[in-house]
Design goal:
The protein has about 375 residues and is α+β, with helices and mostly antiparallel strands. About 50% of the residues lie in helices and about 15% in strands. The protein is globular.
């Protein structure tokens, strides 16, 4: 396997890095994350103009990428700068479903950044299992009437509409629901951003794709989302690594940099080795998006488990080596560490994916 990126991907990464370095101060990101809609619209528009969203989709769907490595390149760069603009939640995931169901016009709006949609698929009782769906959809004229509750719909505030999973007589199906047809209860999240509880009471929804085919569509979107969020975590780990090394080289005790102490050198070596393990896992997952469904499922589950475990280790070790300053609001490290920890709880945590990996192995 060739681990070098193509020239196009290197150019894309350089373009994103320059934009974020010059125009994306962390202080503004943190402030925006504590108020609706939880991000800066100007930067979301800016990323769309750069082609960041278009890179996530194939040429046939109006983009110029769409492969696993395109997704990994984009989100690794976004992770390095702790970007909270909802490229994953409001572009990659809904766009994947629109592409698979022939919603060409809507996908064009998503790629241009002129419309945002969010996936409302998780329910309070489900604990990450998107096949555990109580929301119902009953035929009502040309549409369906949806009734139920969805939880942790990220960046729902200000969305154009929602993709909602619901159960019909044929099984789990996906529906496009307008924003004014649902009730939202918004809140801020611990890692800087917003989410909502979404309630539907006979809300009109338009069927996306075939009736009963929602499970397969959700799995495809979830697999691509996990590659993206794992690459984001890798980018965050790299920034944390650089901050921690710099701190160990400059912070002094007894007249010498604390990085000279052997105990801290050993701990930092462990962190560096684990980050390289995370990099290998992300590369493997990005490549797996082109594999058959069974292989892809096992690799994606293993990757998400590994990223959750390594991410927690990197966050905890970096804070301990920094000492109290690592927990302060004014110091950047704490914000990176919070996001890294919370990534473990999105799209299934360590326990969920370990159990899934074991089950998939038994079924093989």
């Amino acid at each position: 396997m060739d681990f070098n990126h193509t020239e196009t991907r290197r150019m894309l990464a350089d373009t994103i890095e320059r934009y974020l370095r010059d125009k994306y101060p962390l202080a503004a990101r943190v402030e925006a994350g504590n108020n609706a809609p939880g991000f800066q619209q100007a930067h979301y528009d800016g990323l769309a103009e750069l082609g960041v969203i278009a890179a996530l989709f194939e040429e046939d769907h109006g983009g110029f990428g769409g492969e696993g490595f395109d997704i990994a390149v984009v989100f690794e760069e976004l992770g390095k700068r702790l970007v909270n603009e909802p490229v994953l939640d409001c572009a990659l995931v809904p766009g994947t479903i629109f592409a698979a169901t022939g919603q060409t016009d809507t996908l064009e709006e998503v790629i241009a950044g002129s419309a945002r949609y969010a996936l409302a698929a998780e329910e309070p009782q489900a604990l990450y299992d998107l096949s555990d769906v109580d929301t119902s959809a009953e035929p009502s004229g040309d549409v369906h009437a949806l009734t139920g509750t969805k939880t942790v719909v990220k960046y729902a505030s200000g969305c154009t509409g929602f993709i909602v999973s619901a159960r019909t007589a044929k099984g789990i199906s996906l529906f496009l629901v307008a924003a004014d047809a649902v009730n939202l209860r918004d809140y801020t999240t611990a890692d800087g951003g917003t989410a909502s509880e979404l309630t539907l009471k006979a809300a009109p929804g338009t069927l996306l794709g075939d009736d009963g085919a929602g499970g397969a569509l959700l799995q495809k979107a979830t697999d691509r989302a996990i590659v993206g969020i794992c690459a984001e975590a890798l980018g965050i780990m790299q920034t944390i690594r650089e901050m921690t090394i710099e701190y160990l080289q400059t912070r002094k005790q007894f007249g010498v940099p604390i990085g000279k102490f052997q105990a801290l050198q050993h701990r930092m070596a462990d962190v560096l080795l684990e980050i390289e393990q995370a990099r290998s896992a992300v590369i493997n997952a990005a490549n797996a998006l082109g594999s058959d469904a069974a292989d892809r499922a096992r690799i994606i589950a293993a990757t998400k488990y590994s990223i959750g475990r390594i991410g927690r280790m990197v966050a905890e070790e970096s804070i301990q080596m920094h000492g109290g300053i690592g927990m302060t609001w004014e110091y950047d490290l704490g914000h990176y560490a919070k996001r890294l920890i919370m990534i473990d709880h999105e799209w299934g945590d360590q326990d969920f994916h370990l159990a899934r990996f074991i089950d998939l192995g038994k079924a093989a």
